Amino acid sequence: MEQLTSTYPPRCPFWILLSCALLLWACSPSEKNPNVTKEEIVDRHLDVLYWQAPSTLNPYLSGGTKDMEAASMIIEPLAHFDENGQIVPTLAQEIPSFENGGLSEDHMSITWKLLPNVTWSDSTPFTAEDVKFTADYCMNDEMGCNALVEFQDIDEIVVIDELTVQLRFKKPKPHPFDAFVGSNNPILQKAQFENCTGLRAQECTEQNFGPIGTGPFKIVEFRANDVATYVANENYRESDKPYFQTATIKGGGDAASAARAVLATGEYDYAWNLQVEPEILTQMSQAGYGEIVTGYGSQIERLMLNFTNANSALDLDKRSVYMDGNNPHPFITDFNVRKALSLAIDRNMLVEHGYGAGGAPACNVVPAPLRFRSPNNDSCTESNVELANQLLDEAGWIRGDDGVREKDGVKLSILFQTSTNTVRQGTQALIKQMWSAIGVETELRNIDGAVFFGGDPASPDTLQKFYSDVEMYTNAFLGNDPESYLANFTCDQITSPKNDWLGTNVNRACTPEYDKIVTELSITADPQKREELAILLNDTVIQNYWLIPLIHRASLSARLYSLGGVRMNGWDSELWNVADWYRIEANVFIFKEAEVSN
Predict the structure, then answer these.
(1) Do residues 164 and 147 make contact, with C-beta atoms less than 8 angstroms apart?
(2) Are strands 45-49 and 270-271 parallel, antiparallel or unpaired?
(3) 234, exposed or middle or buried, with CB in 10 Å at 0-12, 13-18, 19+?
């Protein structure tokens, strides 16, 4: 995990630096000064910009990171992943292990002991019944939730007592930390959601927009695709937290305007997901209001290739629908086309123009942790247009008078969609140019991020619907083991109208062989064998070009210098420890200007 900060030119003498540093020590509600109360913190309102506006506060009904992050201020999992990717207890007393009896020797169960005296924000007790209900909610036969892959190996959930719940598995599960670990797997309150299961899940707008939680904040007002307003949860288990008493997450605009609002003007405290050209961020940072915070996790910017026919002339019950493999894409299903599309891309150029120090060329879908990263695909960092053209020639794709390749009346004409921001549109333009060199025609389309990542089953413009040939976005897994993430590409996870487009296999590639290896990984305890199987699954995805990895992206956000407590996390929600965030008077940050000179 890397943490990058800006550098500062010297502007004040050492005695001022020393006095400011002492003042900072005195004002910070930290381990150095634990007696500072939230009443003593200056300015108790937190302003956050998520330019991809949240569209729901129920992450189980969305595939968008923005929705999971906005919800993470309210609803919590049993455990989080910290900034180092390690599992730390949240609503649990401790992390289950063999030593404390939480893990069974046969790997068939995991037992969680819950913190005592935790209440929901409505003052009712948080119990094991809420945990069981959440699993039942996600495992509903009529319609599960977007995180079903984390629950698919659970056979039953048994409430031992009010503070103890046991998950029993269908088969040995050596890595049992999927369900209820990480901000994408929070606990829902049974009393609030018990009439919102199955087919009714999407209809419960009041609950999905206003969940009752155990977290540091509760929702006051939620306007989808616009703004979320929060107030501190007076029933939060840590009575001196959160330090902020009100908070707002504002959506809209773009990544550059969000960065500007923190770095250049100081209007907002924190701005998320700054997919902005590096030279622009550097220029903004010179204003002195804030800094870029960066952490690497498993985020990969990739091209998803649609294995189903996305032709707009098709009826909606067929467009981008798998249909048991009987609705294939007219050219993406040609291996030579997929490989040629990858070979033509200069990833180093994409990094240089769009990411700088915030990215690196990617050749795998699992880039980290290091032990799970495959060494078998590194050649992708060098483009090979000559070989790409050769492959297409040999496969019978012939250039027409317009320069576009064609075969059996089918043109290599791609509709390429992504969300709206300047880096992604710049990347689209570069890839379009690269593909033109191999005779591929490309039409570019961009969609507002709040819609593209929103998961609304009624919208034609979501990444899950995938009504195009190619789409680009970033995806990642939470935590330090890719098992459940790699299970996203199995046949039973294909997005379709049958699961309300909530599956995780968005590109709809499907082979029984891959599914078999996923099953083997799920029951393998030996660490070395797990690494080998995970690499084999990664290589299956990559070497069959089910998707094309482009950039290993850092989590890149901005904070004001006056915002303390931020622990940048590339493995979980960036707001995972928002209860610890606090404000200090701006003048104590004068010493930051000369920090690197001493």
Answers:
(1) no
(2) parallel
(3) exposed
Burial-class residue 172 by CB neighbours within 10 Å (0-12, 13-18, 19+). middle
Q: Quick check: 486 pLDDT over 50?
A: yes
Q: Within its chain, how far is the Cα of 432 from the centroid?
A: 26
CA torsion sign for 159, 164, 166, 167 is positive
- In DSSP terms, 406 is beta-bridged to 398, 411
What is the secondary structure of 376-419 as a DSSP string? S-GGGGS--HHHHHHHHHHTT-EE-TTS-EEETTEE-EEEEEEE
H/E element, 169: strand 164-169
**What backbone phi and psi angles, to 5 degrees, belong to 425?**
-70, -35
What are the residues facing 157 on neighbouring strands?
A: 167
By C-alpha distance, which of 559, 568, 82 is closest to 295?
Answer: 568
CB atoms within 10 A of CB 400: 12
Query: What pLDDT score was predicted for residue 18?
Result: 33
pLDDT of residue 149: 75
**Do residues 274 and 255 lie in contact, with contact meaning Cβ atoms separated by under 8 Å?**
yes
Pairing of strands 164-169, 217-223: unpaired
**One-letter amino acid of 198:** G
pLDDT per position as a tens digit, 544-571? 999 999 999 988 999 999 999 999 998 9
How large is the C-alpha radius of gyration of the chain?
Answer: 24
- With 0-12 / 13-18 / 19 or more C-beta atoms within 10 angstroms meaning exposed / middle / buried, residue 409 is exposed
Token couple for 229? 């307003």
Q: 475 in helix, strand or coil?
A: strand
Q: Residue 161 phi/psi, 5° resolution?
A: -155, -175
Strand segments, DSSP code E, in 52-163 are 79-81, 87-89, 109-113, 154-161
Which pLDDT score is estimated for 15?
A: 31
In this structure, which amino acid lies at residue 450? A
Distance (Å, whole) CA 518 – CA 583: 46
Number of neighbouring beta carbons within 10 Å of residue 267: 13
Instruction: Count CB atoms within 10 A of the CB of residue 474.
Output: 19
- Quote the CA–CA distance of 571 and 297 in Å, as a whole number: 5
Please state the pTM of the whole predicted model: 0.75
Q: What is the token pair recorded at 193?
A: 């959601």
The candidate with the shortest Cα–Cα distance to 361, out of 532, 551, 596, 164, is: 551
Q: What is the pLDDT of residues 145-197, one digit of tens each?
A: 765 678 888 999 999 999 999 999 999 999 999 899 999 999 999 999 999 99
- Select from 326, 291, 359, 295 the least CA-distant residue to 567: 295
